[in-house]
Amino acid sequence: MDPIALLTRMVEIPSLSGEESALADFLVETMRGLGFQAHLDKAGNAVGILGDGPTEIVLLGHLDTVPGEIPVRIESGALYGRGSVDAKGPLAAFIAAATEVGPLPGKRIIVVGATEEEAASSKGARYAATTFTPACCVIGEPSATRAVTLGYKGRVVFAYQAETGASHSASSDENVIETAVAFWSRVRRWAETENAGKKMFDALDPVLREVHGGSDGLTESMQFRASIRIPPGQTPETVQARIQGLAPTGARLRFWGADPPYRAEKNTPLVRAFLAAIRAEGLEPAFKVKSGTSDMNVVGPVWNCPILAYGPGDSRLDHTPNEHLDLAEYQQAIAVLTRVLQLL
Question: Closest by alpha carbon to 83, among 4, 28, 1, 16?
Fold first, then answer.
């Protein structure tokens, strides 16, 4: 197998959240050709299994990407294209490393390309959480080759909607847009108070995502969508209750995408295997925690096993118009993962 050809083809196949079937089919066919027992599961995940034993090692990546077309090309040693970093690079590295290692005595290496990670649903990971009972798990997310990620903030996504009767622009009464802005200002002030003296990973991060206002001449309306990243010590339930308490009378709030923050243990056989493998590649290992969320937030609390996130790529390029993956780094990440699987 040519790992670069595999990744290039994966990036060439569009796979927006909810539209991953073409890529899933391709990966099932590809993994079968590489010796995996491969199938599509009920969530549309592409699942490939090597070996047959009681110990499960799950390599959980995701198939889907955010919108935005980037011409797929190799330029100056880097592969450009949507999903090259987030997170087809890590998933392709999982397949390549598992293929290199082959079946291990007493172990099942399970590669999962999950659906809808970029959506608030995390459909694929939620289904996988009910299907497997791994001894350890690696989440496929860009960490850069020498680093492992041990924690992610949680998240709550919510929508705000309100309407009032139309009013004259000269009226001194607060209009529906001003009421919404005042509410969001209260949310921001609450977060700033909670965040005083705290570092990035321990802070609340409220962000507006979409804003729409309008009038039909009789009714004025205002809608917006926002997300709040949740640090350890907070829960989706406590954050939701606080937002509801800050909302104006008559406004309607809808919540979804509630995932708790998660931080994995640092002193585990899985972490030690990665540290040894990274050093064997001549690199100095590092640890990261991230302000975003991943499928670790979904499966970590369920599986309660050694877990971390790893993959090639600069996460600062996630979702950007300049998304690209250094191919030398990609191949080095495959070497690290191959060593890890041999050590476990």
Answer: 16
Alpha-carbon distance 66 to 314, whole Å?
16
**The one-letter amino acid at 101:** V
116 is annotated as an active-site residue: no
Q: How far is the CA of 180 from the CAs of 1, 12, 183, 205, 279, in angstroms?
A: 55, 42, 5, 19, 52
- C-alpha span between 227 and 312 (Å, rounded): 27
CATH architecture assignment, domain 154-259: 2-Layer Sandwich (3.30)
Whole-prediction pTM:
0.92
Please indicate whether residue 69 is annotated as part of the active site: no
pLDDT by residue for the chain (344 residues), tens only, comes to 899 999 999 999 999 999 999 999 999 999 999 999 999 999 999 999 999 999 999 999 999 999 999 999 999 999 999 999 999 999 999 999 999 999 999 999 999 999 999 987 899 999 999 999 999 999 999 999 999 999 999 999 999 999 887 665 556 577 898 899 999 999 999 999 999 999 999 999 999 999 998 887 778 899 999 999 999 999 999 999 999 999 999 999 999 989 999 999 999 999 999 999 999 999 999 999 999 899 999 999 999 999 999 999 999 999 999 999 999 999 999 999 999 999 99
Q: Choose, from 20, 56, 116, 117, the residue flagged as catalytic.
A: 117
**What stretch(es) of the chain map to CATH 3.30.70.360?**
154-259
Catalytic residue among 20, 56, 64, 141: 64
DSSP 57-109: EEEEEE--B-S-----EEETTEEESTTIIIIIHHHHHHHHHHHHH---TTEEE
Residues carrying CATH 3.40.630.10, the chain: 3-152+261-343
Q: What angle do CA 210, 323, 72 make, to 5 degrees?
A: 115
Assigned superfamily of 3-152+261-343? Zn peptidases (3.40.630.10)
Q: Is 232 helix (H, G, I), strand (E, B) or coil?
A: coil
